[in-house]
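Lecture 7 notes: from sequence to structure.

We start with a single chain of 512 residues. Read the sequence below before looking at the structure.
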Amino acid sequence: MATPNEKLAESLTRLEVLQRSGKQVLRSADLTRTHLTRLTNNGYLKPIIKGWYISARPDELDGDTATWFASVRDFIRGYCDERFGEDWYVNPELSLLLHTGSTSLPRQIQIHALLGHNNSLSLPAGMSLFDYRAKDFAASSSRTVAQGLRVLSLEAAILRATPNMWQSDPLTLRLSLEQLRDVSQLSRLLLDGDHSVIAGRLAGGLRAVGREAMADEIAGSMRSAGYVVVETNPFAIPVAPVRLRPESPYCGRIRAMWEDMRQQVLDVWSVPLQPLPAAAAYLLEAEERYLADAYHSLSIEGYQVTAELIDKVRQGKWSPDSNEQDKRDRNILAARGYYEAHLKVRESLVSVLAGENAGEILQQNLPGWFRALWSPSVQAGILKPSDLAGWRSSQVFIRNSMHVPLPPEGVRAAMSLLFDLLSAEPEPSVQAVLGHFVFVFIHPYMDGNGRLARFILNLMLARGGWPWTIVTMPVRSEYMAALEKASVEGDIRLFAILLDRLVSQQMTISPE
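Now the structure, written as tokens:
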């Protein structure tokens, strides 16, 4: 008779075959009830709804949502394809968000289906799926796929955007208009129906972002067909003109976020600029704060560290060649990597304090920071040397966050843009707040992004003459919630207020 371990191994073999075929979301029909029960009881599968499962890891903590957020698009497409075939798509609002580089999904995902039932289906992590029975269902020529989901084409989604969306999310509508290469398809859709009011709204929107020729073409086409077109500006606020050079949707969204968020930062930042200090005095103070900084930064990422462990590493008592525990202890490896990276950051600080461009210094030195952060793990044989080269090549997800970082194909251009934005930004407070935020928004590495972001924060703070500032464990929940609000809702103010407060506090206390 097979042992329990042998039975589990057999079930895992069946699961591996399905995963190799690309299935991360499974139907109950994909495995026998015995295998399903065994894999679920051992933590290798998690139920989504009755009859649907996602692959998981047994060591995942209760409430950990990373597995779900990594699989939610696959589930929605698989579930909706089974129920509605190809006759469904996400609503116009989400279609436009996906076309313009937004990687976050809303709590309620609304799909329009030819045979929808206007029902809501509860999903994990407080999400839901609403299948709306669309009366004016879009033709197949107006549908496509974006980020793994069936969506309206860009033109069809723009046409169907409600007046409320133009006012509540002007960023997405502006980016949508920016992506239009011409308005021939848009004009055809307008002329196929009685859309004179919508035509007036689109012409007014295009004119508001500086695309006068396109606005004239839409209005002219409709009027030539006998329609009366009254242009109205659908935006509630002034919007920036579109750029001439084409960008990826991810870069376009990041650039527009920077333009919007920098004013939010300037509105709430209160710490006055300080004269640039002498490098020696600044680095001495940063060194005196190192123990506290390393403890809090590593603890925020979930490492179990103590001041004694950090001091052991700093004094060179880490001996992976002679001490097997040192070689494999992830906490010691993290502490050693943090120390090595901190030394590299100090070198970068010297350049910034000498007046060099902080954005350019970061671009030159960030790869060295990353290599230093993980070099102990390479020495211990846990990582390959090639793991330290370049940006990530796989998708990454953030635990318990609705924000999904950029896909790997978008990282290179987005990081190049971030360096450009930092290099051109005149305000140190904006560099510090948005440098940190946009870096973790992109998440360019598989791991270590939070620690590197806090290094970036301090490199940019130095340009304002502000001291090395520690994001402490007591504010971790506030810190993570503020980053989530900025990533999902585009509101950076709470994050800027938090950092402003921490910098102010650091200026009034002595190093510890």
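The CA atoms of residues 126 and 499 lie 29 Å apart. Keep this in mind for problem set 3.
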